[in-house]
Amino acid sequence: MTNHPSRGDRPVEPLVFEKHVAGAYGVDFPPLDVPETPVPHRVAGSGVPLPSIGQHDVMAHYTHLSDRNFSVDGNFYPLGSCTMKHNPRINEWAASLPGFSCLHPLQDEDCIQGALRLLYETRTMLEEISGLHEVSLQPAAGAHGEFTALKVIRAFFTDHGQPQRTVVLAPDTAHGTNPASCTMCGASVKQVRTIDGHTDLEHLQEVIAEVGPENVAAFMITNPSTAGLFDPSIKEMAEIVHGAGAKVYLDGANMNALLGRVKPGDFGADAMHYNTHKTFSTPHGGGGPGSGPIAVTEELAPYLPVPQVMMADDGSFYLDRDREKSIGKVRSFFGQFGVLVRCWTYISACGPEGLRHVAETAVLNANYLAVRLQEVYDMPYFAPEKGAFCAHEFVSVPQTLLDKGVTLIDIAKRMIDYGVHPPTMHWPIHDCLMVEPTETESKHALDQFVDVMLQIANEIDQEIACVKNAPLVSDIARADEVGAARKPVLVWND
Amino acid sequence: MDYTQITDAQHEEMLSIIGIDHVDRLFDVIPESIRCQEGLDLSPPQSELELQRSLTEMASHNVGAHNMVCFMGCGAYDHFYPALIDQLISRGEFLTSYTPYQAEASQGTLQAFFEFQTQIAQVTGLEIANSSLYDGATAVAEAAILAVNTTRRHTVLVASTMHPEYLAVLRTCLADLHVNITMLTATNGKVLPETVREEMSDDIAAVIVQSPNIWGQIEDWDGCFEVTHEDAKTLAVAVFNPIACGLLKTPGECGADLAAGEGQPLGNALNFGGPYLGLLAAKEKFVRKMPGRLVGMTKDEDGRRVFCLTLQTREQHIRGAKATSNVCTNQGLIALRASMFMTTVGREGLTEVASHCWHKAHYLAEQITAIDGWELTFDGDFFNEFTVNCPVDVTHIVDSGKERGVLVGVAANGRRMRKLSEGNELIIAVTEKRTRHEMDALVSLLKELST
Ligand SMILES: Cc1ncc(COP(=O)(O)O)c(C=O)c1O
């Protein structure tokens, strides 16, 4: 076992492979209770070289690893666009009920009425929140929802004799998944300029004219925008897009700011996705799983993926697998069921007033932070004196601080020393911090965050080295990411 | 309860610091005409106690592997997993963290994913693996897209014995990408290498074969992939079951270039079909074409071994439309479960699980085929799942099983899955969880139903 030096007193956690002890095992099995059948040589493999360790070592290993992570539970985690809100444990409790977690996906409908009812209710709740006609719960994440909805839109146009509509427009500040999803659907993307975080309507018209209105499939827009601003001209935008005969796609990543206040269907969205792992409090799990239900208008509904959960006249539930115009299947079985159980639980806990209060508080918290920080952290779009507020998140380009000789990364890494997870960086505009506190933080936590940010600004004035060399107190110093990409080591080798 | 924590007094104080008299001012920029005029039409909020009641009630309207004996498989298996997994995975440090973009705040997740990638490479016998995709079906689609992008060819050959849901997803994903799917027909439940040869042409990006296949049959990966590689450019894609790798030849041993599979059997509950775990492993030369996140080993400024996300220029947040995939949120926590499972059972444990599946499935097959009128549909090798021709209506068997608390298997006639056959076959899966007693009871039931 290699012994790497660590900061502080804590040793580096060895890899499980380095802890391997021949003959060790973490769990045992009952004796085989049937006669053996020999495995013929033609199919037998030579075994796999997995590591083996004892059970207590398993516990220690993962406990040590968990100790080396920031999390919403333990840290302020203001990642813009990611909505790192509190993850209620009743959601976890619900998903682990054996009556949900032990269902085989191919069981007969009469065995799974409770599960189907939960799916059906989730579907209708998400329809109501979107103001759109029909929801599909199939997509596995937001990006998968984008892909699915774009497929639906393309199928609609093909069915209506307009297969040439293969161009998708998106603002230059769009999330990376937007253009990437277009590619996965065989569509091409055209960027539309933004000015101060808002889509430039004139440029939108120009681009439509340039590619030919008859070739445009959709315009993908995020509202509040990826810069965290409500778009006052969203309806005009939708009218322009509809005028070209195309569809409006809403990237619903920022739905947390709209809940109960604005329904996407009311501003002209034809299709949208939710990220349940953002808006509806299902945990991010270090990268997933999430889920990305989509909502669409009545004219797009026939093209939704199969199966669809339905309620029969007698009040029982079933899965409709025969939709003649459906784009088909986008995932095996019925989507991220366990995540949808959590989503149902959260929406049911909040109720209609609660959801509206969520949006209100998310926006209040963000504006409060922005006001308290704006003198030190420059904010290009934030000017409350002129009525220019932010929505649920705000963008800072702390140029004044950067001019003093630190980089954005320095500031971010110093935040880690203070136990705060750095905000989203470098997106939606270059060299920015995008802060999204969410509604679940207490005022005390918000104030502490302000203190940390002001303290870092102070340090930049007075002892810049501790910012430039940050992180100072975390387990590790800055990781060499350039080196990692130059010579990738993706698996452990003896 | 909406989980907010700002009191009314704090709310007022914050408004005054912002310099407004009402929170509505923050929403004034939204045009009146698009604001909700009425509240949402949703049920009133439920307290946690009420939620526990209503969820318990809803869950009680389901029966499943917790109160039935489950012989159903076809892509989702009722395996055992150690209790410690649920305990460890609930740690908020894992559960409530985000994608580990900030290496210095995420070494735990990063190291765990690095270990996962290594374990998947070890299990598949390939050189690298990514840190997860949505599920087995989308992993197969991503593998096909990788092959198409690497070879710049436009046809994939797919075994007709692949899981029908995987095929359906593959069709959807390839539909707008100008890629043709040619089906490899099966002979006696398997694809013959000769069949692959007949379909080969100079436009084949990949040959995709699942083993064990939807009927439970072990395919001839060796033979099929040898033919595949007669064309140096064509990629051999093995669609695999990670548990089977503990006993049978791995994708790597059979010459696969890529291995895609469903990771659900590795420590994950059935969950009514999700969240599951897409696995993708590859030969190292495809590393820059891989979809999804990759964790790499590197050093920090003090020379300490650390981990970080790497080769991000493949990914959507850097590369946009030219990314290798649009995947962003993946199945991180399920990958961690799988890794915990592999760590806990270890080298011998995986082989033991796989052997138990094998021996029990073969015992049950022997017992069933000893009943008059029951026979195996195919005579090839199988692992943990096999197909039988029923002498009586398969629907009757499935229904009677339910009445006796047994999920007897999956009917191939399209009752719950896309139709596989016009016939009367039943696909039966056996995991290490099934006891001899449960199997003998199933045999008696089938005997009784066939007289
Ligand atoms: C604006 C925006 N769009 C799309 C996505 C993609 O969603 P997901 O990660 O769920 O695939 C994200 C999430 O990171 C996002 O912030």
Short synopsis of the structure:
The complex is a heterodimer of chains A (494) and B (451). By secondary structure, chain A is α/β, with parallel strands linked by helices.
Q: How are the elements arranged and paired?
A:
The complex is a heterodimer of chains A (494) and B (451).
Chain A: H1 55-66, H2 89-95, H3 98-101, H4 113-130, E1 134-136, H5 142-159, E2 167-171, H6 177-184, E3 188-192, E4 194-195, E5 198-199, H7 201-211, E6 216-222, H8 234-243, E7 247-251, E8 271-273, H9 276-279, E9 294-296, E10 308-311, E11 317-320, H10 337-373, E12 394-396, H11 399-402, H12 408-417, E13 424-425, E14 433-435, H13 443-462, H14 464-468, H15 481-486
Parallel strand pairs in A: 2-3, 2-6, 6-7, 7-8
Antiparallel strand pairs in A: 1-9, 4-5, 8-9, 10-11, 12-14, 13-14
Chain B: H1 8-18, H2 48-60, E1 69-70, H3 83-89, H4 92-95, H5 107-124, E2 128-129, H6 136-151, E3 155-159, H7 164-174, E4 180-184, H8 193-199, E5 204-211, H9 221-228, E6 235-240, E7 258-262, E8 278-282, E9 294-299, E10 305-310, H10 316-319, H11 332-369, E11 375-376, E12 385-389, H12 394-403, E13 406-407, E14 410-411, E15 425-429, H13 436-449
Parallel strand pairs in B: 1-13, 3-4, 3-5, 5-6, 6-7
Antiparallel strand pairs in B: 2-8, 7-8, 9-10, 11-12, 12-15, 14-15
Helix pairs in contact in B: 5-11, 6-7, 8-9, 11-13, 12-13
The complex binds pyridoxal-5'-phosphate (PLP).
The site of pyridoxal-5'-phosphate has 14 residues of chain A, from helix 5.
